[in-house]
Amino acid sequence: MSALKIKKGSSRKSAYDLRDPNSDIIERHTLACVVDNEAGVLARVIGLFAGRGYNIESLTVAEVDHEGHLSRITIVTTGTPAVIEQIKAQLGRIVPVHEVHDLTVEGPAVERELALLKVEGAGDKRVEALRLADIFRANVVDSTLDSFVFEITGTTEKIDAFAELMRPLGLSEVARTGVAALPRGV
């Protein structure tokens, strides 16, 4: 592990300051980690991000192998290429982590997210909300005289666009699952 040398009198640097000064490109990456399904593993993974000042945009965790007691953690994060490489290397060193895949660079991948959106309104706003839901292929999963709850699946961008269109129509609550992703093909 290399150490960052700091000149005397200078302040400590964050992980984002380790980047190449000629490369300020911040990239979004989807990482998939296969881990032991045991207490404390998620806390260790999250602690890695928190302790080094890395941001997590989305986090999804579920057991994927009941017999092998394995879970899959899907993390969407941002950083410079050097920071992303550092995150992957540090994740790989955590003992209960079996595999770390960067789906963004390993080839084409499928990413989906599920969201529930509650829209409150009446009259024309209610009709417009239903029309937009039809265009976005969102399903009505609950309906009262005053509100709808829509279920929508798709890319993060699709869900963001749907939410923005629903905002002026009475969007009052949003619940999102986070990204689930798998590589395409064999």
How is this structure best described in words?
The strands form two sheets. Strands 5, 6, 7, 8 and 9 form a five-stranded antiparallel beta sheet that branches. This protein is α+β, with helices and mostly antiparallel strands. It has two domains: 24-102, Alpha-Beta Plaits; 109-183, 2-Layer Sandwich (Alpha-Beta Plaits), CATH 3.30.70. It is elongated, with a radius of gyration of 21 Å. Helices cover 26% and strands 38% of the residues. Its EC number is 2.2.1.6.
Please report the total strand number as a whole number.
9
Q: What is the CATH superfamily of the largest domain?
A: ACT domain
User: What is the name of the CATH architecture of the largest domain?
Assistant: 2-Layer Sandwich
The helix/strand series, from N terminus to C terminus, equals EHEEHEEHEEHEE
Number of domains: 2
Average pLDDT works out at 89
Total count of helical runs of at least 4 residues: 4
- Overall outline: elongated
CATH class designation of the largest domain: Alpha Beta
Q: How many strands, which pairing sense, and closed or not: the largest β-sheet?
A: 5 strands, antiparallel
Stretches where pLDDT is under 50 for at least 5 consecutive residues are 1-13
Structural class: alpha+beta
Radius of gyration, CA atoms, in whole angstroms: 21 Å
Helix content: 25-40%
Percent of residues in β-strands = 35-45%
